[in-house]
nitric oxide dioxygenase (Meripilus lineatus), 431 residues
Amino acid sequence: MGSHSSSGIQDTLPLAAHTSTTCTCKSHIFIDSEMATNVKMPLDLPNPGPLTEAQKALVKSTVPILEKQGPEITRRFYKAMLSANPDLKNTFNNSKQQQGGQAEALARAVYGYAAHIDDPTPILPYVERITHKHASLNIHPSQYKIVGHHLLSAITEVVGPSVFQGALYDAWYAAYWELARLFIGLEEKLYEGAEWVGWREFVVRERKEETEDVCSFYLVPKDGGVLPGYKPGQYISVQRYIPELGFNQSRQYSLSDAPNTNHFRISVRRDHSPIPGTLSNNLHSTLHTGDTIQVAFPFGEFFLSSSSSTCPSSTTSTSSGVHSLASHALNNETTSLLTLHPSPSQVKRAIFYSDIQGAVQGQDYDFAGRMDLSKLGDEVLRVGDESAEYYVCGPERFMDDIGKSLRGRGVDVTRIHSEMFSAAANPISGN
């Protein structure tokens, strides 16, 4: 995760949009485009009412501008917002800010929202995913007011105050708050179902060096309380003060063990990239047995239900993404696990498993090399079984390729579920 299971899942706040699905194997919040108008807003937040058709047309007219200037808008947005509200640095991923990943993701999200403003169906598959991530970071309704102010100000600066004014500004103001109301309402439902909201102090009961690059941390509540149950594939956010930055960093990590009430286990990969993940490497270097760390309630919609044995499923991941699927496999909830690993050493690094030299093609695996679903028959993939579900985890391009391949073989998009371990979230690809 973000790395998805190692560096965390971090998405943009809050303009990215998730999914309603017909699958009986998975419990989702069901969403429709009218839901935003039915959310009760706090009295101190704007409520301009539903978008009119004229306002939708005005918002959609800005799509060419957003396509060209979106990244500049979102770069200015983040710079101004974090400068005016330094406390939000505790929420946003500092490494992704330096890399520019969050600005790029937000630019695509704003573009996607505008492009589909008259029919949000193509972007609804992202709303639930983002609401879970927001809930794991304890996002408050009041923060949407901050985001809205700086986003509209950034659009004004880039597009020009002589253009972004009057009816056009009002249309975007209404559009922003319609989406914000949707997020706020869904996040409130998640908070209502959580046993705690915000951060809870945990202790590292055990630190286990899985490989030279992967370390597992077994976390238990400092207060000795019983842990809640969680679903395979869910994650927790953890937060820690980073002295060299002077503020906290919060990241999401997959729960890498089968669901239990004894501990949370996260498996963190050391990041060797040019701009490494700050918190992941901090945990590797400084978090030891007996130390404390702040932990959020488990969230995440990338899971199968307890009745999944009656619903065939295939899971597909890259070497890092398999951490997100580890709890599925350990809980015996997946019918088949399709994984991509460039080398045996990366298999070991990803899933703490070293005995692969004796694997037999045709018995233990179908083929070696880059994941290519065209090499697998319809029977193996169960594309003709409409009850089959597909769970994909990895980088954006990997998931796009897998999604397109499955859809090309007749798999309906509602049967394809994905979890991305990068800051990017493409609201238009439909995977």
Summary: The chain has a mean pLDDT of 79.
